[in-house]
Amino acid sequence: MYCRNCGRELTGTPDYCPHCGVKVYENVTETRGGKSKTASILLAVFLAFWTWLYTYRKDAWKFWVGLAIAIVTAILTAVTLGMFLRFSWIFGLGVWIWAIADTASKKYEWYRSYS
């Protein structure tokens, strides 16, 4: 069973999440909505860090880090008149791999219990 708020795994049958303090309900399937792991992975493959907008409430900091890296890379490329361009792909590739690995490594239950 996973917490609907923070997504962490819960052991036993607690009344409150020991990580974030939100009340835990017996039936996890009662959550409305939820997200699709497949959609999240496809977003990561095609849009890199923009996938974290799909699960923004839980992954907001990841989105902002990815956006900051993209902006800094663009600025450095512009300031160095393209000389930084030969190295900039490394940062983009790193964020892209991070996004794919992060979305693929989360369990289906984390997406199903997303509310």
Strand fraction band?
A: under 5%
Low-confidence stretches: 27-31
Gyration radius, in Å = 18 Å
What is the overall pLDDT average? 85
Separation of termini? Answer: 14 Å
General shape = elongated
In total, the number of domains comes to 2
Helix content: 40-55%
Would you list the SSEs in sequence order as H and E?
HHHH
> Total strand count, please?
0
Most strands sheet: none
Class per helix and strand makeup: mainly alpha
Number of helices: 4
Based on the model shown, name its key terms:
4 helices; 53% helix; 2 domains; mainly alpha; 115 residues
Describe the fold and architecture:
With 115 residues, the protein is mostly helical. It folds into 2 domains: 1-33; 35-107. The two termini are 14 Å apart. Helix 1 (37-47) packs antiparallel against helix 3 and helix 2 packs antiparallel against helix 3. The protein is built from 4 helices and no strands.
Summarize the structure.
The protein is mainly alpha-helical and 115 residues long.
Topology of helices and strands:
Blueprint: H1 37-47, H2 56-79, H3 85-105, H4 108-112
